[in-house]
Amino acid sequence: MALPGWLRWVAPVLLGVVVLLLWQWLVRALALPVYLLPAPSDIWRAAIDAWPLLLLSAWHTLRLALLAFLLAVAGGVLIAVAFSQSRVLEAALYPYAVVLQVTPVVAIAPLILIWVGVDNAATAVVLLAWIVAFFPILSNMTLGLRSVDPGLRSLFRLYGGSRWQELRLLRLPASLPFLLSAMKVSAGLSLVGVVVAEFVAGSGTSPGLAWRIIEAGNRLQTARMFAALLLLAAIGISLFAMLAMLERRLLARWHDSAR
Questions:
Q1: Which letter, b or e, does each residue of 99-138 get, where b requires 16 or more Cβ atoms within 10 Å of its Cβ?
Q2: Residue 220 — φ and ψ, nearest 5°?
Q3: What stretch of H or E contains 79?
Q4: How far apart are CA 6 and CA 16, in angstroms?
Q5: Residues 20, 206: contact at Cβ < 8 Å?
Q6: Contact indicator for 127, 112 with CB cutoff of 8 Å
Q7: Which parts of the chain have pLDDT scores under 70?
Q8: Cβ proximity of 73 and 178 under 8 Å
Q9: Which of 17, 199, 209, 233 is 20 to 30 A from 124 in CA distance terms?
Q10: What are the two backbone dihedrals, phi and then psi, of residue 117, each rounded to the nearest 5 degrees?
């Protein structure tokens, strides 16, 4: 039986409130020091005190994550379309895309930073985040373009449809659910990639949230660290929610994945 729509929102909110209240009580009951584990009230005060700085850092991180995400979507879709038109091209390039995906970002970040220059840390961060976010788009889009009903393809050929018409009118619309699903994953990965890249390549030269976390940790300002982490979580949830809404808008009338 399907859950009512209101329960999908109320249940996680109630659970969150219970967890926060329990957290607050345990910290006070055990008299834990703030630098070890701050209470939710301490985190709230730290967030209010540092709100202008955290908001500026959040905007910087979000801007780089969105840029990396858009580049990943554009590059993944274009290369997937090329793969769908040429099996030889796919066989030649796909293994290198896999190699790029499985290579740890932290391992290649110093090399990327050397290539682009220390003064261009933001460029290095975007490139590293793009590497993280690119593969889900490529793999899902390639799968979507290859998953077209053979009967519909035969019908296009029967009526003399060109390869361009088949791609534009059949393959691309059929692959849209795969692309939208991959975009929800890729958006989160782009944010993770930016934060990891900022830790390795951008910290100290980048005003992003990763640097604020390191800065607060070095000063034992644990409450501010939690505030920055919660802000990152809020950004990630917002990106996922907006893409999920876009998916429902585009697919609700004709595809089961949006229901």
A1: eeeeeebeebbeebbeebeeeebbbbbbbbbbbbbbbbbb
A2: 60, 30
A3: helix 51-85
A4: 16
A5: no
A6: yes
A7: 1-8, 158-161, 201-206, 253-259
A8: no
A9: 233
A10: 100, 140
